[in-house]
Specification:
The mean pLDDT is 75. The chain folds into three domains: 52 residues, no CATH class; 64 residues, no CATH class; 49 residues, no CATH class. With 217 residues, it is an alpha+beta fold. The chain is built from five helices and ten strands, in the order αββββββαββββααα. It has a four-stranded antiparallel beta sheet, covered by helices on one side. A two-stranded antiparallel ribbon has the order 1-2. The protein has a two-stranded antiparallel ribbon with strand order 7-8. Helix 3 packs antiparallel against helix 4 and helix 3 runs parallel beside helix 5. A hairpin with a 4-residue loop joins strand 9 and strand 10. The protein is globular and about 65 Å long. InterPro entries: DNA/RNA_pol_sf, RVT_2. This is Reverse transcriptase Ty1/copia-type domain-containing protein. It holds the Pfam family RVT_2.
Length: 217
């Protein structure tokens, strides 16, 4: 908790102001989580300070978001996806995948990744864990020489997309997930077909329309 509090203060997550009249501040709560590695071993005990957003009221502060974000950096959110940031390093594009306080760095060439890491270390309290082997419950195993990716990892990534921003692939990905215990070459080709579809529809996503109904929850 002390580390989380120090990180929030160092990153300027909030500023202290006078409380307006007849305004009740949101309550806060601590959320605790055990972070494990690919083998299920305890890697870190984590805590996060959260605002109770469910106390927001329609028409007053309902559109406000209360969460730390990747501010004061040269990376910007990629389109509408606030979990994916992109920037230019050494003339080439670099991507950051951010999930709470876990970050993946993706770029063409290890030298660009090596340049990004000091940039992040300078601006944020982060730990360099080396080459990624585990992320969001997925074990990452690559064959760089053959340039291959395991089907389980591919489908795991597609499942994440189908839940967050691309529900249009949910049926196809759900069908693929049923064959993870014994995938065949046909299943791999089907997974690549979903990836090609995503590449051709990169501008698509979830759009929420206006409604006069009051959200209660």
């Amino acid at each position: 908790m002390d580390e989380e509090t120090h990180s929030l203060l160092e990153n300027g997550t909030w500023k202290i102001v006078e409380n307006p009249e007849r305004v009740k501040p949101f309550s806060m709560k601590w959320v605790y989580k055990i972070k494990r590695d690919a083998h299920g071993n305890v890697e870190e005990y984590k805590s996060r300070l959260m605002a109770k957003g469910y106390q927001q009221k329609q028409g007053i502060d309902f559109d406000e978001v209360y969460a730390p974000e990747l501010g004061n950096s040269d990376f910007v959110a990629f389109m509408a996806d606030e979990a994916l940031f992109t920037g230019i390093v050494a003339g080439k594009r670099v991507y950051l995948v951010v999930w709470v306080d876990d970050i993946l760095v993706a770029a063409r060439g290890a030298e660009r990744i090596a340049k990004v890491k000091p940039h992040l270390l300078e601006k944020f309290d982060v730990h360099d864990l080396g080459e990624a082997t585990y992320f969001l419950g997925m074990e990452l195993t690559r064959n760089r020489k053959a340039r291959t990716l395991k089907l389980t990892e591919c489908v795991g990534s597609l499942l994440y997309l189908s839940v967050c921003t691309r529900p249009d692939i949910a049926q196809a990905v759900g069908a693929l997930a049923r064959y993870m215990a014994g995938p065949t070459e046909a299943h791999w080709r089907a997974a690549l077909g979903v990836v090609r579809y995503l590449a051709g529809t990169a501008e698509d996503g979830v759009t929420f329309g206006k409604s006069d109904e009051t959200l209660v929850g």
